[in-house]
Design brief:
The chain has 370 residues and is of the alpha/beta class. Helix content is 42%, strand content 18%. The protein contains 15 helices and 13 strands. Strand 8, helix 8 and strand 9 form a beta-alpha-beta unit. The longest helix has 21 residues.
Length: 370
């Protein structure tokens, strides 16, 4: 099959990382797989995609996300493919519209349990119509599926409806073994420091602020590394200065060596307001390090019973967990081992196999019902 993945950009993020991880595995099934990005800026992920997939075509539509001129250009590209798979909000909408001008199988992935649009009640019918244009909708976790069905309501909740069976859950996955086997970066870890790392874009759904407030409660030998980029970075940098911890916070930017950074750390934290199913969650657990997450949808489901949870925005509770991991070596080791066992449930090979099965069903259905 000829498969096109459509996404906003290849900046750092869970959806972007999933696409880059899926492409070579889908090609290994014998498919021709290309990628279309709305914002075509060059990024480390785009470089990696090109390096790992010789001959891949990367279509770049422009430099923004909601330019309606993308729709005819996207429709022209889509005609070459058997399956078009969209990720993130604007590609979901524009792909659904462009799909009305060409006969191709449509699939989309819902990557979150919430977003700003879900608070616009007037927009729900538009989204329901948009999702109805897709042959299949993949949710990256059971809670993401539950929240999507609740949001759209109606036939999406009725098990006897045709729309109901268009939605399934396929858990996100990462290359667990590659992360587990990564080696720490020599000379990066400061002597005598207990390093806490958070890998996340600086955007509305993420909550680096709570981690920094927790750090402000901790002794001088604790240090935080923040990996990623985004529009809130300057706000978080100002907060570090205001809290008087600027010398204990490293802003490492967008990196291509995340596994090595994780292995160079003592603890991995994901502080968020909401998630779909965080790839950083699974990556952190894959590194055989204790993983701590805020107790919110999309993190709770993976972390509970294996890693550690703290109440949303409760920096005091987070600080207490970090102190316990620092002081109690047996607790640290047991938590790290449990996290790695949990990560093995989310290997990318299983994710790719499940995606391939969805594509085959869509393709077969289209062949018999042109």
């Amino acid at each position: 099959m000829r498969i096109l993945q459509v996404i906003t950009s290849l900046r750092t993020g869970g959806a972007e990382t999933l696409v880059v991880n899926l492409v070579p595995r889908l090609r290994a099934f014998g498919h021709e797989v290309d990628v279309c990005v709305f914002n075509g800026e060059e990024t480390p992920l785009m470089e990696r995609l090109r390096r790992e997939n010789p001959g891949i075509r990367i279509f770049r539509l422009g430099s923004g996300y909601y330019n309606p001129l993308y729709i005819p250009r996207l429709a022209h590209i889509m005609r070459r493919y058997d399956i078009v798979h969209s990720h993130n909000s604007s590609p979901q909408l524009f792909t659904a519209i462009a799909g009305t001008f060409c006969h191709t199988g449509l699939c989309t992935t819902e990557h979150n349990t919430s977003n700003r649009k879900r608070h616009w009640k007037w927009y729900a019918p538009i989204e329901s119509r948009m999702y109805s244009a897709y042959d299949h909708i993949i949710c990256i976790s059971a809670i993401a599926e539950e929240k999507l069905r609740e949001y759209m309501g109606g036939d999406w909740l009725r098990k006897d409806s045709k729309l109901y069976n268009r939605i399934t859950t396929i858990n996100n996955g990462v290359d667990v073994r590659a992360i587990h086997d990564a080696r720490p970066i020599e000379g990066l870890h400061p002597e005598g420091r207990f390093v806490i790392t958070m890998v996340a874009g600086f955007r509305d759904s993420k909550d680096q602020d709570t981690l920094l407030r927790a750090l402000a409660r901790l002794p001088e030998n604790y240090e935080v590394w923040l990996v990623g980029g985004g529009e809130r970075m300057e706000t978080v940098q100002r907060l570090a200065t205001d809290l008087g911890i600027g010398d204990r916070v490293r802003f490492l930017g967008v990196r291509t060596d995340v596994p090595a950074l994780l292995k160079s750390s003592e603890v991995i934290v994901m502080s968020s307001h909401w998630e779909g199913l965080s790839l950083s969650n699974i990556e952190g657990m894959s590194a055989s390090r204790p993983f701590i997450a805020s107790d919110v949808d999309g993190l709770r489901e993976v972390t509970a019973g294996y890693g550690l949870l703290f109440p949303h925005r409760d920096d005091a509770a987070l600080a207490e967990l970090l102190i316990r991991l620092h002081d109690d070596h047996a607790f640290y080791a047991a938590t790290a081992e449990a996290c790695y066992r949990r990560a093995l449930d989310f290997d990318i090979a299983s994710t790719a196999k499940a995606y391939n099965e969805v594509y085959l069903r869509i393709y077969s259905s289209r062949q018999y019902n042109p």
